[in-house]
Amino acid sequence: MNIQQLIANYPGTLYKKIPFQPERGTIYFYNKPYYIAIPLEKLTDRERILIETLLSEETPPNYSPASQYWYDLLINDHAFNHTDENRKIRIIYFHLNLPLNNADRLEWHDALKGFFDSNTSFVYLSSQRGFIVEQTVLLSEGELDAIANTLANDFTVKCSFQIGLRHTVSPQLKQIFVEELHLFEKTIAKANVKNVTCVESELFSLLKPHLNKYSTLEDIRKIIAEDDTWVTIIHAIWEYQENISLAAKHLYMHRNTLQYRMDKFYEATGISLRKMDGLTIAYMSSL
Q1: Which residue ranges does the record assign to the PucR C-terminal helix-turn-helix domain (predicted)?
Q2: How far does CA 235 lie from the centroid of its chain?
């Protein structure tokens, strides 16, 4: 959409890159990257029907005091309050693959809220996306995956979540938020996105192309490609943080058998899966 042409055709049109409260007597919608409010008096009935057909009308933001605080700090560029600098939070980003009608959207919001504790804040940026600020109780990746499945069954739309890292509230939080949100937007643009992704995993995926440039790792990639059991083994050791006993249990493998396979990998590649540096290189080579 050509925003300048829209303004020329409909004087009084307001647009911003952040959600805002439009004036009464306007039609408010989101067309990436802009939130737009067009005065109804400037539209013919035919033009209004056309706009409503092409674009999803948005509900103007209406935040609780707690959510308004996070909106102001992370979106609206309000000054950081140093009395908050000892607080730690985690942000979960979410996106719906399809918009819901107003009634279903309100019901979806209530259903989502019911899975979290009372200290959690919800900031909706549009009818399809927003973020959640956790302060005390942090849900696990498995719990979020179950929530996504439940919501999909109840409302027939898919919700994707990205779990951010744990951060101290500080003047740097706004930039951290922007970077994590950018990672999430890149993730949901891909096909077959998982219900739940994590910032640390997405950062790893950004590093992989840099590793692929090195011929030094070519033999390692070939060994892993020729025997796909290496992927399962390496990922199990990675997931269980080098705890061989837990990794072996996950693989339904005797601990001594797993250690034998790790020794064989070292003989073939020169990389030790017992060392974090070696395990990291092997893990990234297997992605």
Answers
A1: 234-281
A2: 22
Task: Please report the domains of the chain, with CATH numbers, ordered by start residue.
Answer: 3-54 (no CATH), 65-202 (3.30.70.270), 214-286 (1.10.10.2840)
